[in-house]
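Subject: sequence -> structure tokens, single chain

Hey, anyone have a minute? Need the predicted structure for the following. Not urgent.
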Amino acid sequence: MGDYQKITESASLHNHLEKMSSEDLLKKINEEDTKVATAVALVIPEITRLVDALIERFKKGGRLFYIGAGTSGRLGILDASEIPPTFGMPHDKVIGIIAGGDGAIRKAVEFAEDNTMQAWKDLKEFDINKNDTLVGIAASGTTPYVLGGIKDAKANGLLTAGITNNPGSPLATQTDISIAVNVGPEFLTGSTRMKSGTSQKLVLNMISTALMIKIGRVEGNKMVDMQLSNNKLVDRGTRYLVEALNMPYEEAEKALKKHGSVREAIKAFQN
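Reply:
Had a minute. Here:
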């Protein structure tokens, strides 16, 4: 696992937590949380490298895969699951995979993260190939499931990236693009669902949102390809059309429902 000190396992800067009042606990947690965005800002150059590489690979038909265990795996799945409704992309363009399978999304699967061979088996079910990109997510940077997947992906010619909270960890050193966010010790020692998980969520938001914008799934600042899967989204799309086409709300709603998306409705009225 290397001779470096795992920041994610280092002692909290706060002690005697059980003696604190509820308000003090919350203030101290928030105090630690304020450090996260600053830490993410320091790795924007690495995130940029990944986004720019993804743009080119998507243009050639490539896909984005996330793999992780526990919280990291769930965050990858969360990000992937939001791409179709938000950007109208097919479900098979950004894919999240968690150690232990989909059942592990809700309930931890014992020792699933310790299998170095399973990730590539899981990925092969999607006919993964060298046009695709694999992003491993692991706060510790040492999760065997993730490291095994990265090793096999590199051997098969894929671009690899790692999102970790331990600079110098195997995930940081064994990927083509290393996004190592040093958020410092957790408020609750070793509880990486806290600052580490928050930093991973921020980075994933940045990667997928920037990628979708750059491949043309946004116009101006609007989600013109979002799926109209509930009344809230229909209302949002209608308001986009009211603004874009300067038409009454009722007319805009009819146009949206007729054409199926903000983009298609705008196109119809501009032609």
